[in-house]
Amino acid sequence: MPVLPARRRGLLLPPLILAVSVLYAAPAAPAAPAAPAAPAAPADEPDWTAAPAAGAAGSARPAFYLAGAPGTVLEDRLALDNPSDREHTLALRGADAHDTADGAPAARPAGAADGTGAGSWISFGTAATVRIPARTRAVVPFTVTLPPSALPGDHPAAVVAAAGGRETGVRIHLRVGGPTLAALTVEDVSVRGRGARAEVGYTLVNRGNVALAPGLSLRAEGLFGAVPGRPHRALPVELPPGRRVRLSEPWPGAPLLDDVDLTLTVTAPGAAPASARASVRLVPWGAAGWAGTVLLALGGAALAALPLVRGRRARRGAAAPGERARAAGPAPGPELTGATT
Question: Of 235, 258, 283, which marks where a domain is finished?
Answer without folding.
Answer: 283
